[in-house]
Specification:
The protein has about 525 residues and is α+β, with helices and mostly antiparallel strands. The chain has three domains: about 130 residues, 3-Layer(aba) Sandwich (D-Maltodextrin-Binding Protein, domain 2); about 130 residues, Dipeptide-binding Protein, domain 1, CATH 3.90.76.10; about 210 residues, Dipeptide-binding Protein, domain 3 (Roll). About 30% of the residues lie in helices and about 20% in strands. It contains 16 helices and 21 strands. The strands form five sheets. Strands 8-9-10-1-11-19-12 form a seven-stranded mixed β-sheet. It has a six-stranded mixed β-sheet with strand order 14-18-13-17-15-16. The chain has a four-stranded antiparallel β-sheet with strand order 4-5-7-6, covered by helices on one side. Strand 6 and strand 7 form a beta hairpin. The longest helix has 18 residues.
Length: about 525
C-alpha cells in the first residue's frame, strides 16, 4: 500500500500539471524564420569539446556536428562508412579502413591516415579514460598507416563489438594532429574536426555557436549558423520555445508536455531511448558494501508506482540494466519485488536493525530530485534516514569519480546498438571511477563481460548477456528506475529533425518551411 506521503506527492504532481495547463494560452511562435540560423535549447552545457576527455550527452551532442568517425550507423543500425570509403575485417583481430580522399579539416588540412593513427593512439592514452570502454580493446602497437589513405588496426582479442563501438561519438571521433598539437591543453575549447560545422564561439554555461563548414565533404546543412543554448530549467526551455526564441527544445518536462501539444505552432516528438536511469550505491563504502543492504533498499522502493507518479506517462519503468532498444535486452524481466518487511529483515541481518543515516546525490534535473524526494520518504519505513544533496553537474560527476558519495541518481546511455557498451563500462571492475561510479566489482560479472566481447552474435552471446542481467539484479549495485524518453518540442516549420535513442541528436539535416 502506498504511504500517505507518497499519495501527497502524487497529488502535488497532478496539481502542478493542472497549474501549468491553466497558465494561459501559449504565445504564438514567430511568424518569420531566419533561414540561416537554428537555435536549440539543451539542458546542460558541454563539459569539453575534446571527444576523448568526456562521455556526457551534452558534449556528445555538440561534438556530433564538429567531428566524424571512421564508421557510423545508418537508420537500420548497420555499421557503414563515414570517413572510411570502405572497411573490412581481415582476420579475427585485424581491420582495414580505406579513407575517403579530399576530406578537409576545419583548418584546411586534408585528412590523412596519420591523423587516424594519431587520434586512436591519443584515445588510448591514460589521460583519455572517459573513452576507455570504447577503445580499450585496440592494440596500441598495431595501429599503422599502410599509406596516406589506408589504416590497419588490431584488437587485443576477437572483439565482436569492435565496429559498433567505433561508431561512438567520443571514442570514434577523428582529430587533426596539427590542431591538437598547436592547441595543447586548450584543445577542448578549440576543436578542429571534419564535420559539417566548426566552432565560432563558446560562452561556458550559456551557449555554443557554430558556423557551417563549407569545405565539408558530405551534404551541406541548409542553414549557416547553429546555436546550442544551455537552459537547465525545464519550464524556461518551454517558454523559449513558445516565444519563438528557440526552434527546438530538448527534454520537455512532464509538466509541459500537454502545454506543447496544445500549441498549434509547435510539435512534440517522443522516443524511448537507450538510457537506464538508476539509483546507484557506492559498493566500496559501508553499509553499501553489503549486498543485503543494497537488496533491502531496492525492496523498499516501489519503483513502478514512483515512476508513475513522477514521470506521468513519460518514459517507462526499468527492470534491468540494458534498455529495451538494445540488443539482448531481456524483455521478460519483471519489476523488482516491493517488500518492506523483508527489507527490514535484511537490514537487521546485515547489522542495521535500526537503520542508518545516508545521503542521495543528484544533479539539478527536476525529475531526479523528485525521485530522490519520494525515495527519501519511502526509506523512512525501514529506518533509513536520507539527506538529499543537489549538486551542479560538473561537481556531481567529479564527486562520483572521486568516490565521495553514498547513493546517487543518474543515467547511463548505451550509445551503440551493442550490449557491450550498456554493461561493460558501468560494471566491469577495471572501470571503477570511470563510468563504473558504483565501484562495483564482481569476478563472475567480469568474466561474463569479457566473454561477451569474444563471442559472435547468436544464441550463446545472448545467454551471456541474459545471465549478466540476472546477476546484476541479484547483487544490486543499481536500483533500476526508468528508461528515459526523448521528448522534444519543435516549431512547426522545423522539418527533418529525428530524435535519437542515444540522447543527443543530429541537427545538420534540419530544414525550414518557407514562410
Amino acid at each position: 500500500m502506498k504511504s500517505k506521503c507518497f499519495k501527497v506527492f502524487a497529488a502535488m504532481c497532478v496539481a502542478a500539471l493542472a497549474a501549468g495547463m491553466m497558465a494561459g494560452d501559449p504565445a504564438s511562435a514567430r511568424e518569420k524564420k531566419d533561414p540561416d540560423t537554428l537555435v536549440v535549447a539543451n539542458v546542460y552545457d558541454a563539459k569539453t569539446l575534446d571527444p576523448y576527455a568526456t562521455n556526457d550527452v551534452a558534449s556528445s551532442g555538440a561534438m556530433l556536428h564538429i567531428y566524424n568517425r571512421l564508421v557510423t550507423l545508418n537508420d537500420k543500425n548497420e555499421v557503414v562508412g563515414d570517413l572510411a570509403e570502405s572497411f573490412e575485417q581481415l582476420d579475427d583481430l585485424t581491420y582495414r579502413f580505406v579513407l575517403k580522399k579530399g576530406v578537409k579539416f576545419h583548418n584546411g588540412e586534408e585528412l590523412k591516415a596519420s591523423d587516424v593513427v594519431f587520434s586512436l593512439k591519443r584515445a588510448l592514452a591514460p589521460t583519455s579514460g572517459a573513452v576507455k570502454h570504447i577503445v580499450g580493446a585496440i592494440d596500441l602497437e598495431s595501429i599503422v598507416a599502410v599509406d596516406d589513405y589506408t589504416v590497419e588496426v588490431k584488437t587485443l582479442f576477437p572483439f565482436s563489438a569492435f565496429l559498433p563501438s567505433m561508431t561512438h561519438m567520443g571514442g570514434g571521433a577523428i582529430l587533426n594532429e596539427k590542431a591538437v598539437t598547436e592547441a595543447g591543453d586548450n584543445y577542448g575549447m578549440n576543436p578542429v574536426g571534419t564535420g559539417p560545422f566548426k566552432l565560432v564561439e563558446w560562452k561556458r554555461g550559456d551557449k555554443i555557436v557554430m558556423e557551417r563548414f563549407d569545405g565539408y565533404f558530405g551534404d551541406k546543412p541548409a542553414f549557416k549558423n547553429l546555436i546550442i543554448r544551455a537552459i537547465p530549467e525545464g519550464t524556461n526551455r518551454t517558454i523559449e520555445l513558445e516565444s519563438g526564441n528557440v526552434d527546438i527544445a530538448y527534454q520537455i518536462t512532464t509538466n509541459d508536455v500537454a502545454r506543447v501539444e496544445a500549441n498549434k505552432n509547435l510539435k512534440l516528438l517522443r522516443l524511448i531511448d537507450n538510457s537506464t536511469a538508476y539509483l546507484g550505491f557506492n559498493c566500496e563504502k559501508a553499509p553499501f558494501d553489503d549486498v543485503r543492504v543494497r537488496q533491502a533498499i531496492t525492496m523498499a522502493l516501489p519503483v513502478p508506482a514512483i515512476m508513475k507518479a513522477v514521470l506521468r506517462g513519460v518514459g517507462a519503468p526499468a527492470v534491468g540494466p540494458i534498455a529495451p532498444n538494445v540488443k539482448y535486452s531481456n524483455k521478460g524481466l519483471e519489476a523488482m519485488p516491493y517488500d518492506v518487511e523483508k527489507a527490514k529483515a535484511l537490514l537487521a541481518e546485515a547489522g542495521y536493525p535500526n537503520g542508518f543515516k545516508t545521503a542521495i546525490w543528484t544533479n539539478d534535473r527536476k525529475v531526479r530530485i523528485d525521485i530522490a524526494t519520494v525515495a527519501q520518504n519511502q526509506l523512512k519505513k525501514i529506518g533509513v534516514d536520507v539527506e538529499i544533496q543537489v549538486l551542479e553537474w560538473g561537481a556531481f560527476l567529479e564527486g562520483l569519480t572521486q568516490k565521495k558519495h553514498d547513493m546517487f541518481i543518474v543515467g547511463w546511455t548505451c550509445q551503440t546498438p551493442d550490449p557491450d557498451m550498456a554493461v561493460y563500462a558501468p560494471f566491469h571492475s577495471s572501470m571503477k571511477g570511470n563510468n563504473n561510479f558504483t565501484f562495483f566489482g564482481d569476478d563472475e560479472i567480469d568474466q561474463l563481460l569479457e566473454k561477451g566481447r569474444l563471442i559472435a552474435d547468436g544464441p550463446e552471446r545472448q545467454d551471456v548477456y541474459y545471465r549478466i542481467q540476472d546477476i546484476l539484479r541479484e547483487r544490486g549495485p543499481w536500483v533500476f528506475l526508468y528508461n528515459d524518453e526523448q521528448v522534444v518540442g519543435t516549431q512547426d516549420y522545423v522539418k527533418g529533425f529525428v530524435p535519437s535513442p542515444f540522447g543527443f541528436h543530429a541537427l545538420y539535416n534540419v530544414t525550414f518551411d518557407a514562410n
